[in-house]
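Re-run with default settings, no changes from the original entry. Doing this only to confirm the output is reproducible before filing.
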Amino acid sequence: MNWDDETAPAAEERIVGAAAEGDDQAVEAALRPKDLAEFVGQEKVRQQLDLVLKAARQRGATADHVLLSGAPGLGKTTLSMIIAAEMNAPIRITSGPAIQHAGDLAAILSSLQEGEILFLDEIHRMSRPAEEMLYMAMEDFRVDVIVGKGPGATAIPLELPPFTLVGATTRAGLLPPPLRDRFGFTAHMEFYDPAELQRVIHRSAGLLDVEIDPDGAAEIAGRSRGTPRIANRLLRRVRDYAQVRADGRITREIAAAALRVYEVDSRGLDRLDRAVLEALLKLFGGGPVGLSTLAVAVGEERETVEEVAEPFLVREGLLARTPRGRVATPAAWAHLGLVPPQAAPPGGAARPGATGQQGLFGT
């Protein structure tokens, strides 16, 4: 059970969005695992990180700097807190956007204690001057503080206590090579498979004192887009439904009914995802169509369609980006129960929605 945060340009808060918003952050704090043994999924990362931390403890030294990359909601923040717990060290949390000047970073670094963990979320969004100061801090545990301006400016070296930097990024490609190379351990967080998400859901249900069937957990896991944060959010919404409209126990039927109310279909698509697919299929015959035209058709900003809806649709194999524009795949036609134009019977036109396929939300 693991999750993190990143801001996306969504037009509205989405129940299947991976950003931590509102009361999510407080709930996550209660549900987060406290050590590597409790951490679900990411088996290779867990094993490798366990070796790094155990070796550092045996040497009585601070752990190497750690870089965690991956999509929002997969556990980067959780792992940073586990690193601090495993090393029995305090943790300082900040983010790249909050560090816009080298002086901001110098103030944070100069106040660190020996062995402290500095968690820097969205490290790819840090300013370039601060980034360059971080190179020396990571490698030599010192920074040069510039005093004065112009010809009379003086660089005063400031020694830092040994510390461990844990950087998190959703876009590792934006990190300059000199910064990436200074991390002793780099890990990429993968999306979770349904079986791992079921374990996440069962553990969270126990902490929330919610009774849930294995089939109910499987239903929620299948709609969670491979992301623990989304799985936990859907669990809480299904819990509410079960409490108000049933006996409080979550079964497959209750989970499916609850998620129909919240417009999350059998593959985890929500209103925005389906609007994009329906416009692409019904208005443009499956494409290709330009991104701006598609955005206008669904009444959203271009950036919202490109950065919020498209990544999951592409990952699910429902939409393809081509040089000519966006194109729907055969799986998209099947998922919406529509007949692609080329599949129309001889002598007849394709009739959108004419197939007898199962409804959008499943059972």
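The longest strand covers residues 142-147. Confidence is low (pLDDT under 50) at residues 1-11, 346-363.
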